[in-house]
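Record filed below.
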Amino acid sequence: MGRGRTAWPWLVGAAAALAAVVLVGVAAGAASITPGQIVHALAARALPGVESPLNDRQLAVLVQLRLPRVVLGALVGALLAAAGASYQGVFRNPLADPYLLGAAGGAGLGATVVIAYGAQWFDAPRTMVPAAAFIGALLGVAAAYALGHSAGRGGTASLVLAGVAVSSFLSAAQTLVQQLRTEELQRIFSWVLGGLIRSGWDEVATVLPYAVLSVACMLACAPLLDLLALGEEKAVSLGLNTAAVRLAVIAAASLATAAAVSVSGLIGFVGIVVPHMVRRLVGTGYRLVLPMSLLCGAAFLVLVDVVARTVIAPAELPLGVVTAFLGAPFFVMILRATRDRSM
């Protein structure tokens, strides 16, 4: 399943579901705006001669608050889900996660350092948090890849072990910074737990170029991941440069993870839950799994964000807490299924 004409119904259905979820996400909130009014108002902005049904206040809420938040949530969910699917394909491990190679540890340390010490170095430290998280995530992945390559010639097992080691070191460094700056713990934990509270069109514009580049690379590598799934010897016999493919996929997935983490904080389990749900629907071919993971990951995180901001309204739950509640039982199910297959 997932080849030729059978792919289009799934992709069209997923795109339609995402559009419906986006409407729900934009409509949810204290200011009452119906999905019909949203469509009408957006049409009025795009087409001459169409009058908007919303007043100035409602239009400002729609365009400046809700739309960028939903768009950013969709981007983050799509990037994390596609990165998860790519990591699982390149490592041939159903438990591989976007934070596997030190991205989370690096992002957490970068953001923590700026939150804790930014006031001493910058006039506006809050604006530096996404950049620091992005740079930290990329440096964490680079350190894990360099360590894994030097220790085990770039094998997948060596990379995973190097990622665990680097993540542990970076997490320890983050904990040390937190202990040295206990007065900033609330702000640090607010970022670490993940969320889209500070979301606007500037954040969308920041993430978009990296999202386009990383997604294009991951989608281009989808047929090569199908070849990798045949096994190392079979893939090499078919002329595939497995080392180059792994490097390209890992780089693209890590770039996607770093971009997502830089604006949303640490949101776990999206990269595990969504690809596994997709595989249950469409099979294991990455030509279909990757684009479906993009669409379903976007819809999933938008829905999670709706839950996070409505369950205890007017307060909000951190997105990372909601995804952990949903993802932890799912992770246990995957672990049990993997164990049963290996017995």
Remarks:
- DSSP finds 14 helices and no strands in the chain.
